[in-house]
Amino acid sequence: MLFRSIRDPVQFYGATRQIPANAMVLEISSHSLFVSILRKSKPAPEPNSCTAGPVLGLIRRGNGNCRRQFLKCVGNLFQLGYNLDLNAIQREVPASSIPVPIGTRMIAPLIRWDHSQTFELMDYGFAACASSSETRIDVDLNKEEYAYVKGHRIDGRILFPAAGYLELAWGKLASMRGQQQENTAVEFRDVCFENPIIFRQGAGVGTASFEIAIASRNGGVFQFTTPEGLVLVRGEIRPLNPEDVLEMDLGAGSPLLRSETPESEEVRADICLSSEDVYKLTRLASFEYDGIFKGIHSINFGSMIF
Fold it and tell me: Which domain holds residue 298?
């Protein structure tokens, strides 16, 4: 054996020097014998050029369950960005089941932490992370911030307004992107209002809590849920680029908005509903608006004046 090694030496070192510095090396054998040797003999990357490629061993004898070692190696390959076909090793998991179909509801609102134990933590004074995808919102009608909601009554019950959910989702996405809400243009799609929030009336009531979750800072699926997991509103939101936003002329001469009543005798002859008439009709339809929800000044058949 010694004579054979001297006569026909294995050029192992020279072969390993031909491996690119950023290449991933996987040793496929019943025992990963050369992993440590390959890590030492592989060429080192040049400064400021590339990172050294990893060296992995499939199985190592004497380290327990070989199947666990094999799956761990497969997991390492996934972390390195290699997309493997898992059906070849585990056919009972169909590829169509991963990922879940679009529209599947989020499970995050159904998961709760166990706060039965308390621990003292150091407060470093950091502000809450605005990039978090989930936020809890506490609405208290007794506070000035949400007192306006009392003016939104339907069938004698105070309901959180539908547009309020959209405004909160808009503000949440803007904060996740580190932008001012008024400077962030967004688009809503497929919005579905599933369950309303009804505030009980009386002393010591008028509070509600719900959570908003948005897929990412680039938008996507959003939903509002109660602490019990009941879905309130769901849909899609995405930010718009400035060039995608259509400029609309809302000046004094625009047909969409007029600053004063037209002086034409023809228009004056049209039937016009005053603000009192409009909200008398809404009350008959069980919409009892008050406060900022009574923003209509008058309505006629030719234009709307706010």
Answer: 248-306
- 117 Rama sector, left if φ>0, alpha if ψ -120 to 50, beta otherwise: beta
- 231 & 142 share domain: yes
Residues 6+ positions from 300 with CB-CB distance below 8 Å: 267, 270, 271, 272, 273
- If one compares 189 and 34, the residue with the highest pLDDT of the two is 189
Question: What is the domain-level CATH number for residue 142?
Answer: 3.10.129.110
C-alpha–C-alpha distance, residues 91 and 77, integer Å: 19
pLDDT band at 66 (very low <50, low <70, confident <90, very high): confident
Same domain, 91 and 33: yes
Region 248-256: mean pLDDT is: 48
Beta carbons of 224 and 212 less than 8 angstroms apart: yes
β-bridge partners, 213? 134, 223
Q: Domain tally for the chain?
A: 3
Verdict on whether the full-model pTM lies above 0.90: no
From 45, 70, 97, the end of a domain falls on 97
Q: What average pLDDT is seen over the chain? A: 75
Of 291, 170, 171, nearest to 237 by C-alpha is 170
**Contact indicator for 229, 109 with CB cutoff of 8 Å:** yes
Integer Cα distance of 287 and 54 in angstroms: 66
* CA separation for the pair 233, 176 (Å, rounded): 19
Is there a single domain that holds both residue 179 and residue 271? no
